[in-house]
Amino acid sequence: MALASVRRADEGFTVPRARVFEYCTRAQFHVRLSRVFSCPCSAVASPDMHTRILHAQYGELIQPRNGSVDETPKMSAGQMLLVAFDGMFAQVETAFGLLVEKLNKMEIPVAWRKIDIIREARSTQVNFFDDDNHRQVLEEIFFLKRLQTIKEFFRLCGTFSKTLSGSSSLDDQNTVNGPVQVVSVKTLFRNSCFSEDQMAKPIKAFTADFVRQLLIGLPNQALGLTLCSFISALGVDIIAQVEAKDFGAESKVSVDDLCKKAVEHNIQVGKFSQLVMNRATVLASSYDTAWKKHDLVRRLETSISSCKTSLQRVQLHIAMFQWQHEDLLINRPQAMSVTPPPRSAILTSMKKKLHTLSQIETSIATVQEKLAALEASIEQRLKWAGGANPALAPVLQDFEATIAERRNLVLKESQRASQVTFLCSNIIHFESLRTRTAEALNLDTALFELIKRCQQMCSFASQFNSSVSELELRLLQRVDTSLEHPIGSSEWLLSAHKQLTQDMSTQRAVQTEKEQQIETVCETIQSLVDNIKTVLTGHNRQLGDVKHLLKAMAKDEEAALADGEDVPYENSVRQFLGEYKSWQDNIQTVLFTLVQAMGQVRSQEHVEMLQEITPTLKELKTQSQSIYNNLVSFASPLITDATNECSSPTSSATYQPSFAAAVRSNTGQKTQPDVMSQNARKLIQKNLATSADTPPSTVPGTGKSVACSPKKAVRDPKTGKAVQERNSYAVSVWKRVKAKLEGRDVDPNRRMSVAEQVDYVIKEATNLDNLAQLYEGWTAWV
């Protein structure tokens, strides 16, 4: 990560590294470290003021506080890398501080220090931590060493990056005038870095210094204290044994003798037998062997993991080097042992990915357009519903917030995709020109040829001062080049004039013929437009009678869908209404365009307007056939078969089959509820007027009343549900009620106002004929 940051010259990494270098140089701690280590520790009384300044500046660099204390500081990539690298040193320092603190808190008897393992561990220890001032001075010293290690490591990272890329290091940029001196290879690459072992040298030096100055002796001392604690727990008085004179005259006691004494004492008192002791010895030996093997496996696995990571980085370095110098390495007679994929394969794969990304962007844009239309429809319906129900206002706000959030997300992803596309296109363009492929070589050859021709033209133009106008160039292109006369002579001009005169006369004749054809076509189109307008007016008038029925049928289908029924969309009224709306929009667009184009002077814009509606006309041809066929398929017969003769409240003899019912019976398709013809509606109204007291279940015939036989319910063969059939009598009643509510019961072609309806009702109620008829009907029942 450090190499990648240095290689791409990241500003977030370069600035912290420069500040670390500045702190290290300002403090001049190389001299101070040598001076401190050369002096006895007792001579150092307090930390230096420079060290405190370094602590404060380095702490600000590690944890910047630009905002408030509660906010998390925003760090750059370089600062995060520096914090992670510094965390290793901080972790070691914290663990060492805990170890020293635990050892200082232990109450160790003076006699225990005469035991050989503790005495030898204290003799190898360089520094002691009994004095707080001494310990603080050591911490400051190793803080400065930490800064030195960090600086040296990042310097080697920069040197390694520059060495890998082939540029000179930071220390080799000073140029001198005069001839270049011949130097040896070692001198030339003295400031270069070629391996990760070189970069690890500062860290290894810090580790060795830390162990030698601080850590050495402490583990053995802790182990000796642990053994003494166990021996005391087993019942052996260590202080008495040390004070005795039987264990040597060198003022030290062997820990092995104390262990033997503890074992013999416990065997004598009978705490455990010799057999248990032998088993414990065997188990301890086996555990030691197994632990060593396990530790070896652990260290080998760690080493293997480290080697794999290093191998991955080295492979990336080799790939970068070979891709950068592929043109030179191709002509190398000896093949390299590690050969990464060539740039051509990488570029081909990148082109495929880029093409796929562009297709995905196109499909996403199409889906977004459809989604925007659906969102607008949902939002409009929520607004309509919110006007009547204020409780839906939060739902509308949540919906708008969700839409805005999703649109922002799609916009961000689109911007990222555009940036990736732009970057990949530039990479492909640059690498394709740099790679020695057949296409790149052809481009180079064409470029050289073009440069050569430009050089020749420049040389030719510098020798002559004459120029050719644009009109003369057009004349040369127009005139036949097979003329025998030289260009510019009198004979050539006469031949050119004659040829141009003939071309002009021919063009004028063709133009006149085309204008006549255009006039004829325009007249034909105008007549067709008038015919279409007439037909469309009649169509709209006739469709107005059944349009409200189609809307009602569509609402029934939507209600069935809401109830959970399986209502297919194909061949449904909803599909028909959508297709009809599209057809109506297309035909209006075509008519408006034709009328607008015919009313203008013929120009290029006129031609473009007529060319734009050509696809729409082809679509209208298909839509018109589908519209009329589907409209007829929705009709049902006004009379039923003999088996279903009692399904209507009126006699089958009274009804006559309509055209739609005939088409239905011929096609044999399953249709939706029927549409009643005008003749049948008049007959129904006449029958209802003559026999108002006849119940719907009986039909007046030739003097007999026919009772309805029970009819077996018709079921859908696919779903098994009962098929609902619309009652013609109920439909007629519903139409009369609807006409009454709309004010069309008197005159179906004109809608009366409320005042007119009130006047009409009062007039009918006060009519003497109606009152007499009402009285006559009432007296019949008395």
Automatic annotation (TrEMBL):
PROSITE patterns per record: FATC
One GO term of the biological process aspect: nuclear-transcribed mRNA catabolic process, nonsense-mediated decay
MF annotations from Gene Ontology: protein serine/threonine kinase activity
InterPro entries, alphabetized: DDR_Repair_Kinase, FATC_dom
Keywords: Kinase, Transferase
Domain FATC: 750-782
Lineage, uppermost ranks: Eukaryota, Metazoa, Chordata, Craniata, Vertebrata
A GO cellular component entry from the record: nucleus
Protein name according to UniProt: Serine/threonine-protein kinase SMG1
UniProt region (Disordered), positions on chain: 689-712
Protein species of origin: Pteropus alecto
